[in-house]
Amino acid sequence: MAKMKIKKNDLVQVIAGKDKGLQGRVIAVNTDTDRVLVEGVNRITKHTRAGGDRGVSTGGIQVQEAAVHVSNVMVVDPEDKRPTRVRTRVETVEQEDGRTKTVRSRVAVRSGKDL
Fold first, then answer.
1. 18: left (phi over 0), alpha (psi -120 to 50) or beta
2. What is the spatial distance between Cα 41 and Cα 26, in angstroms, rounded to a whole number?
3. Which of 37, 54, 85, 89 could tie 109 with a disulfide, CB 3.0–4.6 Å?
């Protein structure tokens, strides 16, 4: 399983499916199923029952987001607000005690800006 390049609170754009073109923030990332939950995207209606042992006193219809596969979203470039691929930049920084430290940062391919 490949590493996911999308993290929580990233601004992403949907590139495939019924919500193609919409942008939103990532609410949650599920690495087991390779799915992300995006704010305002893939909205579904959920019917809930009233009462029961869970303490819910009223039932009704709730509208909430459903998960989207990670291959259907791309990170939005902070400079021009268009979708971009993500690359990892590896830098070695020398510390004060003489040792070196490896620092990895995510970079937008389109503009080269840090994410």
1. alpha
2. 10
3. 85
Domain boundaries, the chain: 1-76, 85-115
68 within 8 A of 17, measured Cβ to Cβ: yes
Its pTM stands at 0.80
Domain 1-76 has CATH 2.30.30.30: yes
CA–CA separation, 61 vs 49, rounded Å? 9
The one-letter code for the residue type at 39 is E
The DSSP element (H or E) to which 12 belongs, if any, is: strand 11-14
Per-residue pLDDT of the chain (115 residues; tens, 9 = 90+): 568 899 999 999 999 999 999 999 999 999 999 999 999 999 999 898 887 666 666 788 889 899 999 999 999 998 999 999 999 999 999 988 889 999 999 999 999 999 8
